[in-house]
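WARN no homologs supplied; continuing
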Amino acid sequence: DALLLGRRTYDLFAAYWPHQKGGGEDGDIATLFNSIPKYVASRGKPDLSWAGSTQLGPDLAAAVREIRDRHENVKVVGSLNLVQSLLREKLFDRLDLWVHPILLGVGKKVFDGGTVPTNVTLLEPPAAGPKGTVFLRYGLADGTPATGDMSAPDRGVGSGA
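OK structure emitted
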């Protein structure tokens, strides 16, 4: 239904996706991204010439609540500063994480500087790609966060192995 992007991700997307056409490897994504509303969280003045783009006002939490009321599916791609704000305000229903088998040591961190303790629950079994990338889908859960339990039978602990 809609994209919610931080300014840097929006700038990257706006420089690429409007120039992609249907068909080819990126065709379906281009058609989708070019046809849905795009909301940009920015303190500056981004170039909003990409069709369907709107800058959010200064009250991010209120703006995101309004977007969530208006659209059934709101996707955030990249935009880690924005993601950290959404996590802090618990303005998400689902958190999709891709864990890639590389160790960089530097770069942007999803949970930079920590995050507000929040319970999440795994919504579906992890899926691993052929090169070792693992996809994890979590949902916001109620209750007080607790430590994980690695003694479950599917972890190989306590089975005499």
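The mean pLDDT is 88.
OK
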